[in-house]
Design brief:
It is built from 5 helices and 7 strands, in the order ααββαββαββαβ. By secondary structure, the chain is of the alpha/beta class. The strands form 2 sheets. A 5-stranded mixed sheet has the order 3-2-6-4-5.
Length: about 210
């Protein structure tokens, strides 16, 4: 029996040779634990790095109040434009109706219809030589320059396609010269709707896009 064999142990427990056997634990469990720790650390660093990138490219928290306030910097306040003057009412407009076509009774018929719609009627008859048989369109509205912002705006709701023209008169009356293409005034229902829209102020934007 060898001196390395403990007393009472023989057979398969006999130790022979001049070196003690080395008993080591398996390293497999240690490797698994280390791998798990390394994975957790890597995931944590990756998540932290992602948050930092989002913060850098997103501008951080300094933009959050701006977003909450409805993106106020996307538009720049502008002063409200002065409202256009209210158009005159039909009863405040005196219309002279002239016929520049060979058809008889055209001017009188148009004048009677305009009177029913509340307009004041002045002269009714044939057009002057300057316009007689020379108006190929629907009609010409002729008046002082101020008529563009007043009587013309109202009368164009009654006569579609009329040509607007100013002369040197100083009075507020307006000439309606009926041309070859004229058939009838605008249907009353449509004319009333257009007139109502004309007197309704359109909403104005309070800001313009920022540069």
């Amino acid at each position: 029996m060898s001196m390395l064999t403990p007393p009472g142990m023989g057979g398969k427990y006999r130790v022979t040779g001049d070196a003690y056997p080395r008993m080591r634990r398996p390293r497999r469990r240690r490797r698994i634990v280390l791998a798990a720790l390394a994975t957790a650390v890597a995931l944590g660093l990756a998540g932290w790095g992602t948050l930092q990138l989002i913060d850098v490219f997103g501008g951080g928290d300094e933009k959050k109040p701006q977003a909450a306030s409805g993106r106020a910097s996307d538009c720049v306040p502008v002063p409200a434009p002065s409202a256009a003057p209210a158009p005159p009412k039909p009863g405040q407009i005196t219309v002279n109706v002239y016929n520049a076509t060979p058809r008889t009774g055209l001017a009188q018929g148009a004048a009677d219809e305009l009177k029913k719609r509340g307009f004041a009627i002045g002269e009714v008859g044939n057009a002057t030589e300057e316009y007689d048989k020379k108006v190929t369109g629907t009609a010409i509205l002729l008046g002082a320059p101020a008529s563009y912002e007043g009587a013309f705006r109202v009368l164009t709701t009654q006569v579609q396609g009329a040509q607007l023209k100013a002369d040197t008169r100083e009075t507020a009356d307006v000439d309606l010269i009926l041309g070859t293409a004229f058939r009838n005034l605008t249907a009353k229902k449509d004319a009333d709707a257009a007139l109502a829209e004309l007197t309704r102020p359109a909403p104005r934007p309070s800001c313009k896009p920022a540069d």
